[in-house]
From TrEMBL:
This is Diacylglycerol kinase. Belongs to the eukaryotic diacylglycerol kinase family. The keyword Cytoplasm does not apply. It is an enzyme of class 2 (transferase). Residues 441-454 have a biased composition (Basic and acidic residues). Keywords: ATP-binding, Kinase, Nucleotide-binding, Plant defense, Stress response, Transferase. Residues 455-466 have a biased composition (Acidic residues). GO terms for molecular function: ATP binding; ATP-dependent diacylglycerol kinase activity. InterPro entries: ATP-NAD_kinase_N, DGK, Diacylglycerol_kin_accessory, Diacylglycerol_kinase_cat_dom, NAD/diacylglycerol_kinase_sf. Phosphorylates the second messenger diacylglycerol (DAG) to generate phosphatidic acid (PA), another important signaling molecule. PA is required for plant development and responses to abiotic stress and pathogen attack. May be involved in the accumulation of PA during cold stress. GO terms for biological process: defense response; phospholipase C-activating G protein-coupled receptor signaling pathway.
Length: 491
């Protein structure tokens, strides 16, 4: 069989027989044919509300090309229910020595079309379900930033939705390689309010991937009486400060006027205008010192087992990013690649996506962020760590802004002697699919550079190194999105 998407038999590579998808379906003899290649069976999950009309158009095209039972609208059915049902059916047929079911489980790949929030939702579900053969995932960029697709070579521009474009994408899925990606758990703890709602704490509107777990077991050491515990996860980044504030303003406007945000270029232009409007180009004059990260939080990191160390934050830093992928704010790489001297002097490494380390980068203002547009531009490299802890006490401000994988929120800070704690730690891995244009690097790949002798002229003298530990948190339903959530806000 020819490998190109123009081959009339091309789509057979991806199709799954009906009886393997739906329980109690009558098995047709031709579906059991041993000659079927079953090279790359796929399940496709599409956020039909992403990308304006694109999500809906893409859904129709995939349903035309594939068995319609392979293609799911995330607005109609959650991925955890779909995968649980399909895998239960596959396991049932496999137990009856059905070789087609066994090959489907072995070769299965997932496609998710939507924004970074949608992609992160599916990644989290696959991680949480503990499937016997966790399938690797390809991402179709239908959002505004599209950092996840860009990091693994799937591009960042919204794709075409016609049959030719979809077949071209499927051809890439067929040829893609598998790559591990770290999963990061985030825990946030704050005091139960004396007045107002408790779940979530009013007026706190948390991201969909961060939930209240105040009913955790009394034996859980993370459960502290009188406090709310929130848990969630992310794949790309956690950030705090000016970038999260701009993102919050953007999402707030889109929520109020969704009809104005149906075009990727318009969205990006609006985002740029908000950066200027918020005053981040002249942060020292407009924002004042109350937004400086060093005044808002005490930051600790852990790189060696059971040993916390204070991370010194330069006083001018107003945004801090804990980054897993080399793609932020639409494909920019805040960490870059440290040169040999930096690696030796400060024990820094290139940013691998599967090394159990987060890169911690700081920015002073929007002008500092523009340095990322230069070939070797990067932010202020603060440290690499396996675990990070932010402690907020009463002080400079009543609130700050936080963001995980594109989802921002306004975080109230203590008004008395209470402490708000945000802690990040490693929590397993999941398989991604990567094209030949993949920007991410694996520590297991012998072709990934460990050293780079290129000049590093953009480094700041403010950069300081620190180190610390490793520990995993188990968090049930970490990434589950409630039924009442409008998933259009994930795009």
């Amino acid at each position: 069989m020819a490998s190109g998407s123009s081959d009339p038999n091309f789509m057979k590579n991806f199709q799954i027989p009906n009886y393997l998808l739906v329980a109690e379906t009558t098995v047709n003899n031709h579906e059991l044919g041993t000659n079927d290649p079953l090279t790359c069976p796929v399940l496709v999950f599409i956020n039909s509300k992403s990308g304006g009309q694109l999500g809906g158009d893409l859904f129709k095209t995939y349903r035309t090309l594939l068995n319609e039972k392979q293609v799911f609208d995330l607005g109609e059915e959650a991925p955890d229910k779909v995968l649980s049902r399909v895998y239960a059916n596959l396991e049932n047929h496999k137990s009856k020595n059905d070789q087609l079911a066994a090959r489907t489980m072995e070769k299965l790949r997932l496609i998710v079309a939507g924004g970074d929030g949608t992609a992160g939702w599916l990644l989290g579900v696959v991680c949480d379900l503990k499937l016997s053969h966790p399938p690797p995932i390809a991402t179709v960029p239908l959002g505004t930033g599209n950092n996840l697709p860009f990091a693994f070579g799937w591009g960042k521009k919204n794709p075409g939705t016609d049959e030719c474009s979809v077949k071209t994408f499927l051809d890439q899925v067929l040829k893609a390689k598998e790559m591990k990606i770290d999963n990061w758990h985030i825990l946030m703890r704050m005091k139960v309010p004396k007045h107002g709602a408790c779940d979530p704490i009013a007026p706190l509107e948390l991201p969909h991937s961060l939930h209240a777990f105040h009913r955790v077991s009394e034996a859980d050491e993370l459960n502290v009486e009188g406090y709310h515990t929130f848990r969630g996860g992310f794949w790309n980044y956690f950030s705090m400060g000016m970038d999260a504030q701009v993102s919050y303003a953007f999402h707030s406007e889109r929520k109020m006027n969704p009809e104005k945000f149906k075009n990727q270029l318009v969205n990006q232009t609006t985002y740029a205008k908000l950066v200027s409007k918020q005053g981040w180009f002249f942060a020292s004059l407009v924002q004042g010192v109350s937004r400086n990260i060093a005044l808002l939080a005490k930051v600790k990191i852990m790189k060696t087992r059971d040993q916390w160390e204070d991370l010194e934050i330069p006083p001018s830093i107003r945004s801090i990013i804990c980054l897993n992928l080399p793609s932020f704010s639409g494909g920019l790489n805040p960490w870059g690649t440290p040169n040999t001297r930096k690696q030796c002097d400060r024990d820094l490494t290139p940013p691998f996506v599967d090394d159990g380390l987060l890169e911690i980068v700081g920015f002073r203002n929007a002008w500092h962020g523009l340095v990322l547009l230069a070939p070797k531009g990067h932010g202020t490299r603060l440290a690499q760590a396996r675990r990070i802890r932010f402690e907020f006490h009463r002080g400079a401000a009543e609130e700050t802004f936080m963001r995980i994988d594109g989802e921002p929120w306004k975080q109230p800070l203590p008004v008395d002697d209470d402490t708000v704690v945000v802690e990040i730690s490693h929590h397993g891995q999941v398989n991604m699919l990567a094209t030949h244009d993949c920007k991410s690097r694996s520590i297991l790949d012998p072709m990934s550079p460990r050293h780079n002798d290129a000049a590093d002229d953009g480094d700041s003298d403010e950069e300081n190194s620190t180190s610390e530990e490793y520990r995993k948190f188990g968090a049930a339903d970490t990434f589950k999105i409630p039924d009442e959530v409008d998933i259009s806000h994930l795009s």
